[in-house]
Amino acid sequence: MEIIELSERLDFKNKAIKYFWECWGSDSxxxxxxxxxxxxxxxxxxxxxxxxxxxxxxxxxxxxxxxxDIISRQDLVPWFACLCVNETHRKQGIxxxxxxxxSEQAKSKSYKFLYLxxxxxxxxERKGWTYFGNGYNVFGDxxxxxRKEIN
Length: 151
Known about the structure:
Helix content: 25-40%
CATH topology: Aminopeptidase
Radius of gyration: 15 Å
Oligomer: single chain
Shape: globular
Strand order of the largest sheet: 1-2-3-4
Strand content: 25-35%
Number of helices: 4
Number of domains: 1
Order of helices and strands: EHHEEEHEHEE
Distance between the termini: 25 Å
């Protein structure tokens, strides 16, 4: 298993765009994912960063560090987003490895906190995240925000 930042392996760009979209997109927003990722995957950019997990050169998981996770709290940065682990690879600790990897990435960029929004109950709390408050998505729905202190 290898975690790669997409700008380091541009040969996976199209596969990664498709993977993120299949995990999080809808029939009408493939262009959103493609445009976002194509304009973001430059090594010199601090954020956003897109990561994929490879096993035998196949993508089995992903996450991103973003400036904002399409949520009202524009004042919070960076955001952990787009966590997805293939169903066949779940319950193997991959999600926790990616959460730890993201914390290390944020720390290397001198961030003191990492944020995420989720409607999952007790998943992130078990991984050391604390409830921070609520924000709103573009549809006006309230969603929980969690924060992790980077040591």
